[in-house]
């Protein structure tokens, strides 16, 4: 079972998210918090695999709470949900250590799958967030820049990197390249190691900065 805590200052939203996630057979909601301070207490008490966190909360906002969780409880991954897709929220959340970022208009099925992906170690960004991230990177780096380690990637790892940069999941990459998901994970791991990237978001940035893929 994947253990989850949920934090949102709107009671209806909090109860709704908890009910959706709790209904999944492989997820267990072990706590629900109305603010960031209670969230930190729940994380310390239950050591969940995933924390689903709203950005705008009283007492301690979601970004500050995410930073504390990342520093004090690195085994707990954070999935940020918000009604706002403004750039500063995206970058602040990712900088604080979030492993995923989705808007609250996400479907119930997508929310459950997002929690599973984050728990499995995948980096997850919604389509609109990815577009903004890519736009910002390409606007700042109109000309390709050298990315150390790029020339160490094998042809198959380069193909995988291009697919990651397009926002494809491991399953989608496996289907497109006619390889297994285990092989995709291996290629992604090698790309992370060779390019010295922390996560898939950094891989996306490296792919665009290097000119390997275009906007």
UniProtKB/TrEMBL annotation:
Organism: Cellulomonas cellasea DSM 20118
Leader sequence residues: none
SMART domains associated with the record: HTH_LUXR, REC
PANTHER family for the chain: TRANSCRIPTIONAL REGULATORY PROTEIN NARL-RELATED, TWO-COMPONENT RESPONSE REGULATOR
Domain Response regulatory: 3-119
Residue span(s) of domain HTH luxR-type: 146-211
Residue numbers of 4-aspartylphosphate PTMs: 54
GO molecular function, one term: DNA binding
GO biological process annotation, one example: regulation of DNA-templated transcription
UniProt xrefs under CDD domains: LuxR_C_like, REC_NarL-like
Pfam families tied to this protein: GerE (PF00196), Response_reg (PF00072)
Protein name as catalogued: LuxR family transcriptional regulator
InterPro entries the UniProt entry points to: CheY-like_superfamily, NreC/VraR/RcsB-like_REC, Sig_transdc_resp-reg_C-effctor, Sig_transdc_resp-reg_receiver, Tscrpt_reg_LuxR_C, WalR-like
């Amino acid at each position: 079972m994947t253990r989850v805590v949920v934090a949102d200052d709107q009671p209806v939203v909090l109860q709704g998210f908890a009910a959706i996630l709790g209904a999944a057979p492989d997820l267990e909601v072990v706590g629900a918090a109305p603010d960031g301070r209670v969230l930190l207490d729940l994380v310390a008490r239950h050591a969940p695999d995933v924390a689903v966190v709203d950005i705008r909360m009283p007492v301690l906002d979601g970004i500050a709470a995410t930073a504390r969780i990342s520093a004090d409880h690195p085994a707990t991954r954070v999935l940020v949900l918000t009604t706002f897709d403004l750039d500063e929220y995206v970058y602040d959340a990712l900088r604080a250590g979030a492993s995923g970022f989705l808007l609250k208009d996400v479907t119930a099925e997508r929310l459950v799958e997002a929690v599973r992906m984050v728990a499995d170690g995948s980096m997850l960004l919604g389509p609109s967030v990815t577009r903004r991230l890519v736009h910002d990177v390409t606007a700042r780096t109109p000309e390709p820049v050298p990315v150390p380690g790029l020339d160490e990637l094998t042809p198959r790892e380069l193909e995988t990197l291009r697919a990651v940069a397009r926002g494809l999941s491991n399953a989608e990459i496996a289907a497109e390249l006619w390889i297994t998901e285990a092989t995709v994970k291996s290629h992604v791991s090698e790309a992370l190691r060779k390019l010295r990237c922390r996560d898939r978001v950094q891989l996306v940035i490296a792919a665009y900065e290097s000119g390997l893929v275009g906007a």
